[in-house]
UniProtKB/TrEMBL annotation:
It comes from Nonomuraea typhae. InterPro entries: Acyl_CoA_acyltransferase, GNAT_dom, N-acetyltransferase. This is GNAT family N-acetyltransferase. SUPFAM superfamilies: Acyl-CoA N-acyltransferases (Nat). Residues 6-165 form the N-acetyltransferase domain.
Length: 166
């Protein structure tokens, strides 16, 4: 997969150093619905979960790589672990790459993949209240706030899009 400015390829164990640098940043971690800590060990378990999700589901978040530099930008893609309330798309960028439009670029490609390749009728995203940057990404890809739900002990916004416009 690629977009205008990004390569989207499977996450691998070799991404660990970059991945850990991203997730041990508390400002990044505080936005994440799935966050379970900010230590390198927590990041390792997170990376293993995203790699394992591809093994189990056949899809997962991709590593995002900046075409112009080869730098690791973050991750984004389809996501539906056990207990998740639908097929999701998610996004997370290392802070140095915020403010460039990369999350929206990757999220739009991931959403299109869910409709075209996974045959989804509806695709959702769970977002913590107050995560205004993430809400903006959701709205830019055409998601609408549908309802709030309890997920893993937190009350979160559920945004979503349908294959056919509502
Ligand atoms: C949520 C997150 C991915 C949003 O990142 P972001 O950089 O704000 O979002 P985008 O990549 O879409 O970039 C949009 C910004 O880039 C700007 N931009 C600059 N150049 C651009 C370009 N060429 N094209 C589009 N936008 C561009 C936009 O104007 C916008 O700026 P603004 O924030 O001042 O309005 C990021 O904050 C993050 O990783 N947070 C931590 C993890 C997290 O919360 N994940 C979401 C869980 S639900």
């Amino acid at each position: 997969m690629e977009t205008e400015r990004l390569i989207m390829r499977p996450l691998t164990g070799s991404d660990f150093d970059d991945y850990a640098a991203m997730l041990t940043d508390p400002v990044v971690a505080e936005g994440l619905v799935e966050s379970s800590g900010t230590t390198p060990s927590d990041a390792w378990r997170s990376l293993a979960t995203f790699i394992g999700h591809r093994e189990i589901r056949g899809y997962s978040h991709w590593a995002l790589v900046e075409k112009s530099t080869g730098s690791f930008v973050g991750r984004a893609g389809p996501w539906q672990p056990h207990g998740f309330p639908g097929l999701g798309v998610g996004w997370c960028l290392t802070r140095a790459h915020w403010g460039k439009g990369y999350a929206t670029e990757a999220a739009a490609a991931a959403l299109a993949y869910c409709f075209a390749e996974l045959g989804a009728e509806e695709v959702i995203s769970l977002i913590r209240p107050g995560n205004t940057r993430s809400i903006s990404v959701a709205e830019r890809i055409g998601h609408r706030h549908l309802r709030d739900v309890d997920y893993r002990g937190k009350r979160v916004h559920l945004y979503g899009s349908s294959r056919s416009p509502r």
